[in-house]
Amino acid sequence: MSKILIIEDEKNLARFVELELKHEGDETAVYMNGRKGLDAALNEDWDAILLDLMLPDLNGLEICRRVRQVKNTPIIMMTARDSVIDRVSGLDHGADDYIVKPFAIEELLARLRALLRRVKSMDEGNKAKQTTIKYRDLVIEKENRIVRRGDDIIELTKREYELLLTLMENINVVLARDVLLSKVWGYNSDVETNVVDVYVRYIRNKIDRPGEQSYIQTVRGTGYVMRS
Ligand code: CA
Fold first, then answer.
1. Percentage of the chain with pLDDT > 90?
2. Residues with a beta carbon under 5 angstroms from ion ligand 1
3. What is the mean pLDDT of the chain?
C-alpha cells in the first residue's frame, strides 16, 4: 500500500485514477488546484505524486521544481501535450517519469509501480551503504557488529568495537582522548583518559600486521586518528 498524491484538474480523470489506486489498496488524495496541490506535496509525506502539467494557479513544472527544492518524492508528470520540449522540461524540473494523455490506466499503474520499486531498492541500497564502513582493508558491518580485515574476522570486545567504530566513522578527524572517552565510555564515566591508550593498544594488537604501520595513528599530546 502506498500513499499517492494526485494533482489534476480534470475532474473525471482525477476521479478515475483515484478509484483505480484505491482499488489496488493505495491511500490517495486529489487536488485540482496547483497551489493547494503544492501545499499538500510539501506538508505531507507521499510515496509518489501524479502531477498534471496545466493546472490553475500554479503549473506542474513549477510545482515539480518547488517540491524538488526540499524533497525527493517520486513524481510522474501527466501531460496532454506530447512534445519533446515538455518531456525534457518536465524531467529537467525533477520529474522521475512522465506519461502522455490520453493514457491507458494500466500503463500509468505499471509506471507508478516500477517507480516505487526503483525508489525502494535505491533506499535499501543507501541503507546498506551506511551500515558498512570501510577503511583500507578493514570493514565494519554495523548491523552484524562484525569487523573484518580482508577475509579475516577480527574478534573485538564491545568497548574495542565501539572505539574502532568511532575512529572509522571519523576518518581524518583527530579525536582527543577525552572525546573518545565520552563517546565510547559515556560522559559520566570516571575512568582515566589513559584507558583509551590501553584500548587502542588492544585493538592494534588485533588488527595491525607486524612490521606495518598501524591503522590507528597517535597524535602526540592529543589523541588518535585514522587517516585516509
Ligand atoms: Ca490540466
1. 66
2. 9, 52, 54
3. 90
Name every residue whose Cβ is closer than 8 Å to that of residue 215 and which is 6 or more positions away in sequence: 135, 136, 138, 204, 207, 208, 226
Instruction: Measure 86 CA to ligand 1 centroid, in angstroms.
Output: 14
For ligand 1, the distance from its centroid to the CA atom of residue 9, given in whole angstroms, is 5
For residue 2, give the nearest of 116, 127, 94, 118 by alpha carbon. 116
* 172 has a pLDDT exceeding 80: yes
Centre of ligand 1 to C-alpha 22, Å, is 22
Tell me how far the alpha carbon of residue 61 lies from the centroid of ligand 1, in angstroms. Answer: 12
Residue 189: is its pLDDT beyond 70?
no
Examine residue 102 and say whether the peptide bond preceding it is cis (omega within 30 degrees of 0).
yes
